[in-house]
Amino acid sequence: MKPTAKQRIWMYEMMLTSRKLDEQVFEAYWEGKKPVFNMGKGPLPGEMHQSFGQEPTAVGVCAHLGADDAVGAGHRPHHVAIARGVNLKRMAAELFGKKTGLSGGRGGHMHLYDKSVSFFCSGIIAEGMGPGAGIALARKMQGKPGIAVSYNGEGAANQGAFHEVMNMASLWKLPFVAVIEDNKYAVSVTKAESTVVPSWKRASGAYACYGEYVAGNDPDLIFEAAGRCIERARKGEGPSILEIETERLHGHFIGDSAGYRSKEEVAAQKDPIPLYRKRLLDEKVISEADMAALEARVKKDVDEAMKFGRESDYPAPNEALERVFA
Amino acid sequence: MAQPVADTGRSLTMARAGREAVIAEMRKNPNIFVIGEDVAKLGGVFGTTVGMADEFGAGRVIDTPISETGFIGIATGAAMAGMRPIVEIAFVDFIGVCFNQIFNFAAKTHYMSGGQFKVPLTMMIGYGGGYNDAAQHSQCLIATLAHVPGIRIATPADSYDAKGLMHTCLRDDNLTIWMVHKRIWGLGWLGTALKTAIATVPEEEYAIPFGQARIWREGKDVTLVGYGITVHHALQAADKLAAEGISAEVLDLRTIVPMDRDAIFKSVSKTGRLVVADEDYLNCGVTAEVLAVITERDPRVLKAPAVRVAFPDVPIPFSRPMEDFCLPDPDKLVAAAKKTLGKS
Amino acid sequence: MTDIVVPADLWDTEDEGVLFLWVYPDGSIVEKGKLIAELTVEKAQLELTAPASGRLKIRVAPETIIRKGQVLGTIEPV
After folding, report:
1. B58 Cα to chain A: minimum distance (Å)
2. Domains in chain A, please, with CATH?
3. pTM
4. Chain B residues near residue C11 by CB distance under 8 angstroms
5. Is residue B1 part of a domain?
6. B11 touches C: beta carbon within 8 Å
7. Chain B residues whose beta carbon lies within 8 Å of the beta carbon of residue A147
8. How many structural domains is chain B composed of?
């Protein structure tokens, strides 16, 4: 099933929103961290794993999801959170550690949660698989519609949790999709260096479930493959492994210069967003004027979100002691 | 607080009393389900779920593959989505393979989400040694679990408390861990029944709150603090001490997190002497936390240094004379009490 | 008066078991079908229910080794 014009425009808008936020976050991140790179300094402290180049994996999948569904992301969550419809201002405020943030500043960049869209993160590699499949189990037990999607990297799929959960999800025919974002690098270690099989789609055989590999980092192709996996889940046909080739355009986190990648390799990488922009205009899915309006709107939304994040207050320090227990 | 006298006179084992609470809550609330290894057909390695698969069906008493990280994660997600799972981990030693899901997910999700996602998850875990099951199947690891914020821990010492604390755990909206020492479950293959662990248990429901210690025996010369099996060691030690004219007070912590620090301080203020007994390792353990209660509030209430009786900081040996050498027992508590009283 | 007998089909093998505990003290009024004792056979904890309603008279103490068909006590009419 191919995406409609409206869906394609939505996908572009979500990718652009994620990219523009990441660009502004990148600028803000370096404040206070020059000339000495001290991770704990500045308005955006801590680690920061950005999504430059990986935006298509979020939009191609989330375009199919609704209010009944749930999404878990990993430590590189921005593009997924935005595509899922997480409140942009409260997300930015959470990155700044402000009390208006999604978790009042308790979670931060790797722990974004928005219950209103059933979105959560796992800061530990692959360990969001269990909770994701657990939400799928709950839907099934409660007789409610809705599926769960869990995002993992190709390196994450080496973690025991991935295999344990895929086995159980398939055994119990859970309405669950395990997305693998193959950006080819687990920090500095390539897939070929870490994984004996060329594609995790092959694991679907081991778990007697459906699997696909989508090449090209192309939102439209991702959309089609995701549609097949999600439809199977909705029909009660069990889980899928959806492995998506994508590109990590920057280092693992801000501050990683990725010196372990050759210049030729980096130069050969393609940025999916300008490519998709050109495709939408060439195919006359959107006019130049409407595109300009869309881009102005995205810039405004992102500017406002960053402003909200910067200007919001920090929580009172002793609020650290609250919310441990319900 | 003395144990109330039950009207029916039913002596139940801790396994059966805990199960009674689970069954009662499951009959009331369809969102509660049990998940773990050998919980359905076998009824649990320690008899925690006997008969439950027959009553509630395979959809609510779920046997899993050997995938602790996987199914604890799944249970956590189900809890986040409105279910109330009970996860069984038969031996506490196995928390190693899945500790991440326990301490980084189930314990922290409520906090990290700023209160958006609750995790009403109860774990049932067996712990303890003394039956020659060696280093990887005999541990307590209570301090290991107690150390991470976000976890409530109940360690009942008899069947009356086992049922009341299980009701409390199942009604709590957080991660609660209900832990029973294997030698007091009431299983014949782990030794003869410890009479003091088998209490009379009312048929009706009742809930014992977290953070409320229990004085099993009042005394004035020395406070013996324990939990789980060491409460029973303390009771036997108190009998022996009484024969020598020493009056010992036996205080059962009942819940490790939250700990009833007021009760500990009150008792030691009265007696002036403290012995803490724990089958868990000594270093950085529960015994140290109990001592901290006194030293932080007012060490001057102590007439003599406190004495800790705990498992030495060695892996648990297999050979019986070696394991017995290490394990707390009534005689070691008697010696500790006399030491703090300046008698030998 | 009804004998409390260890049923022949309570466990599969011919192994001996141990009477682990009586749920009610001697002289208690018990109800037919309710749990009155637990037995241990190898790694299993087995249940004994009252064959009749009435007053429990215990004949065999806990920790005693028992066999199938053995009479552990009686239930007397009240």
Report:
1. 11
2. 5-310 (3.40.50.970)
3. 0.91
4. none
5. no
6. yes
7. none
8. 2
